[in-house]
Design a protein that fits this description.
mainly alpha; Leucine-rich Repeat Variant; 45 helices; globular; ARM-like; Importin N-terminal domain-containing protein; cytoplasm; repeat
Length: 835
């Protein structure tokens, strides 16, 4: 117990300012060396302490630093002694109702983590009985509800959560919320925990009561989706209680709204019980009295966003339509409530969220909403309150986007009026009003098309990039979105303005400009692209760039070459481009790998060896000359692979290997593979940053398969190891790259036993990939392809994985709604349903 003594000495030496840091270092050293020994030390501390206040901070530190709570790679408790884990649960329970908030919070987090991780462990820790018995004690000790709120989501789906259990939990939570939402809650609370709070002030009691209500509402929100519809009458009775929280003083309005949102989503027939109240003007009056009203307004808007989205799935409900006239006035009032003259760039302020909700509602009820918005515009377009002038432009946007010919609005007359309001908006002294004029112009162009009025607006919009610093970024963004319009008339003017703006030292502004220039490359004709390429070539011939700007101009250069393709030779541009690339290679080292590779793809005939050349050399057999073009590009790639710019080299390889005319790389193939494998085993590059390397090897597999198979046994192990180290389920591109690599391996003509480890890795990656929301289409497509490929070889493994992986089961339940190969999905479903 030497470490234990050192920990106590370090922590109790309050005179030394570094004592707590020393204690933290000791904790880290101990938990990394031996998990069970560390756990015994913790238990000894908890048992030996007299729980006096002197140990509270120490115990909090210990609990917060528990390995099973903080280590990202430990998903279960298999490495721990089960008896120690159960003992820790018992000991931690003591602190769940501590009056010390830090200790209570840390112990709740630890307690919940133990229970959750135990559910995913191979050892049977019997956590469900612990959880259910734990729940029965909540009313006697309401502070335990914080721990319940952290874990209830993970237990609701288990079979032990029978309708009867859920009903009992529901009634218990309602009882607690009822007691603590009334003036009588102080007396109840003091009876509940008289010993702990005997010396507490009224403010402390009030604060703890609010905490209990807040966490109680979180628990209620978690169990509501799982309640049987038979309980709908009981659920309806909680609505007045939730409204009481909503309109009460200093109560958790935000969490009450979450519960109302959940009731709305799962039990929408109950909407009539509270919708008229939430659509009333009393709502705004009540919330604006709060010191911190923004979170509540945001949750309120989130509630209506849920309502609007739900309306897309069910028949229009009269109760919602009847609420709209009052509701729109409330939403418009929030939309006009901005307190700062420039829009919040991340869209987090209530006025922007209100605009989003207004858009949703307008899209669903244009006939009802558009006349109300039109009336608002007529009243407020010239208001002295800039938020109302801003809201009129927002209203114009939505009318332009969703107005119906049968709405009763004279569209031609309205458009003339809108033109005047937008022009006035461009000249408004407040930047956020001018910002909204830009977006109105976008809608004016996309909905009405090019005419005299819209062209005038477009000219003003383009000039805003250089003459209105406050909204220049927004103007650049809008340009990038409207260049795809048919017969867009100002490509050259836009390119000139955006090139100037791209040189900004403000990297956010420069990034916006580069994004819009890329959009122009996607949409412009060959003549415009040639004009654009000439500007880029002039820049490389005459300018020096910062690292950031150089990389961005290189990407534009690459995109232009890639898009122009054969036009490079048609207009005799190859030599000029090649000169810039070779000269630039001396000046910028490996940065020009990408345009050089794109040039190989655009002009493959310049890089293909003579038909009479040897297969294993780059020398021409007839005259012993060298294909200098190809040698230069490949050597550039090989050099870049050994540098910090390896990702450029990998991208260049992919461009070349995916060419319609494959340039023979066999002479360098072995060296390329060895360089890629050196990157895969490098400890200086993390697994996620090796995505480009994995994709390059996958391209070699597809384009140079014999060479890949020849090196298969040395290629596979490092990729398997890197895949096993991936932990971030939100790195969709990285996960897709590894999944697609192993999927290609599953399709190789090699013995099935060789595919067992890649198959295991695929299941691990799919398990990780299905942890988050299923909203990345490329990743979804990768998963479907992988499961299909595995199913052709190991169908029983697919069924077993489906049975044991809840996240994959949920993923497959949505499979028919994905925009992917339906035949593959059907094949997978057939495998899952087979005997």
């Amino acid at each position: 117990m030497d470490e234990f003594k050192r920990l106590l000495v370090a922590f109790n030496d309050v005179s030394h300012p570094e004592s707590q840091k020393e204690a933290e270092k000791i904790l880290i050293q101990m938990k990394e060396s031996n998990k069970n020994e560390f756990l015994r030390m913790i238990l000894h501390l908890l048992e030996s302490s007299d729980h006096s206040i002197i140990y509270f901070d120490l115990i909090s530190l210990v609990l917060a630093n528990m390995t099973i709570n903080s280590h990202p790679k430990i998903k279960n408790l298999n490495d721990f002694d089960p008896s120690l884990i159960m003992k820790l649960l018992t000991q931690t329970y003591f602190f769940l109702s501590s009056s010390n908030i830090s200790l209570r919070t840390n112990s709740s987090t630890l307690f919940s983590n133990i229970l959750i991780k135990a559910q995913y462990s191979s050892t049977d820790f019997q956590t469900m009985p612990i959880f259910l018995s734990f729940f029965t004690q909540v009313y006697q000790n309401p502070l335990l509800i914080h721990s319940i709120s952290l874990i209830v989501d993970h237990f609701c789906t288990y079979d032990e959560f029978t309708p009867e259990v859920l009903s009992n939990i529901y009634c218990l939570i309602i009882k607690i919320l009822s007691d603590f939402s009334t003036p009588m809650h102080q007396e109840t609370y003091q009876k509940t925990d008289q010993e702990m709070l005997s010396d507490s002030s009224h403010e402390m009691i009030e604060k703890l009561s609010q905490e209990i209500c807040k966490n109680g509402l979180l628990v209620l929100n978690s169990i509501l989706p799982y309640l049987n519809e038979i309980m709908i009458e009981e659920i309806s009775k909680v609505i007045p209680l939730l409204l009481n929280f909503y309109f009460g003083n200093s109560l958790p309005k935000e969490n009450a709204l979450k519960c109302l949102s959940t009731i709305m989503y799962y039990y929408y027939p109950l909407l009539g019980n509270f919708l008229p109240t939430l659509a009333s003007q009393n709502f705004i009056t009540n919330i604006n009295c709060e010191n911190d009203f923004e979170p509540v307004i945001k949750q309120y808007l989130h509630f209506w966003k849920y309502t609007a989205k739900m309306e897309r799935e069910v028949t229009h409900l009269p109760i919602i339509e009847n609420s709209l006239p009052l509701l729109l006035l409330v939403i418009l009032q929030i939309a006009a409530s901005s307190k700062v003259p420039i829009c919040d760039s991340n869209g987090d302020e209530p006025s922007i969220k209100a605009a989003f909700v207004l858009r949703l509602i307008t899209s669903l009820y244009p006939k009802i909403v558009c006349p109300i918005l039109e009336n608002y515009i007529q009243q407020k377009y010239n208001s002295e309150i800039y938020g109302e002038r801003e809201a009129t432009l927002i209203a114009i946007c939505f009318i332009l986007e969703y107005n119906d010919v049968n709405s009763g609005i004279d569209q031609s007359l309205s458009r003339d009026n809108y033109f005047g309001v937008i022009i006035a908006g461009f000249n408004d002294p407040i930047p956020r009003v001018r910002q909204n004029a830009l977006y109105c112009t976008e809608l004016f162009l996309t909905q009405i098309g090019l005419n005299e009025s819209s062209i005038e607006l477009l000219k003003i919009l383009i000039t805003k990039i250089s003459n209105d610093e406050c909204i220049a970024e927004d103007a650049a963004i809008v340009i990038g979105r409207i260049v795809a319009l048919d017969n867009f008339p100002f490509f050259k003017e836009s390119i000139i303005e955006l090139i100037k703006f791209s040189s900004s030292i403000d990297l956010n502004s420069a990034s916006v400009a580069f994004d819009s220039l890329s959009k122009i490359i996607e949409s412009a004709s060959n003549d415009i692209l040639l004009y654009f390429l000439d500007i880029i070539l002039n820049l490389f011939e005459s300018s020096n760039f910062s690292e950031y700007h150089l990389l961005k101009y290189i990407h534009l250069f690459t995109e232009l070459i890639y898009k122009l393709k054969t036009s490079i030779n048609t207009y005799n541009l190859f030599d000029r481009i090649w000169t810039i690339i070779t000269a630039g290679a001396q000046k910028y080292h490996f940065h020009l790998v990408l345009p050089a590779s794109a040039l190989v793809r655009a002009s493959p005939e310049r890089f293909i060896d003579n038909d009479n050349c040897y297969n294993d050399t780059y020398h021409d057999k007839m005259n012993n000359t060298v294909n200098h073009y190809k040698v230069f590009v490949i050597n550039l790639i090989l050099s870049a692979l050994k540098s910090e710019y390896f990702n450029f080299a990998c991208e260049g390889l992919k461009i070349i290997l995916r060419s319609s005319i494959v340039v023979n790389l066999s002479y360098w193939g072995q060296e390329i593979i060895e360089s890629l494998l050196n990157l895969m085993i490098s400890e200086e590059i993390n697994s996620s940053n090796k995505k480009e390397v994995v994709e390059a090897l996958d391209c070699i597999n597809k384009s140079m398969n014999p060479l890949f198979l020849q090196n298969f046994n040395v290629i596979l192990p490092p990729i398997l190891e890197c895949a096993s180290n991936l932990v971030d389920y939100e790195e969709y591109d990285t996960l897709s790259a590894y999944i697609r690599f192993f999927t290609t391996v599953m399709e190789l003509n090699i013995p099935n036993e060789t595919k067992i480890n890649p198959c295991k890795s695929l299941f691990q990656l799919i398990d990780l990939s299905t942890t988050g929301e299923f909203n990345d289409l490329y990743l979804i497509d990768s998963i479907i392809d992988a499961i299909y490929a595995i199913g052709q070889i190991f169908p029983d493994n697919v069924k077993l994985f489906y049975m044991n992986c809840k996240r994959f089961k949920l993923f497959m339940s949505y499979s028919l709604s994905y925009d992917v190969d339906k035949e593959k999905i059907s094949s997978i479903i057939t495998i899952l349903n087979s005997e």
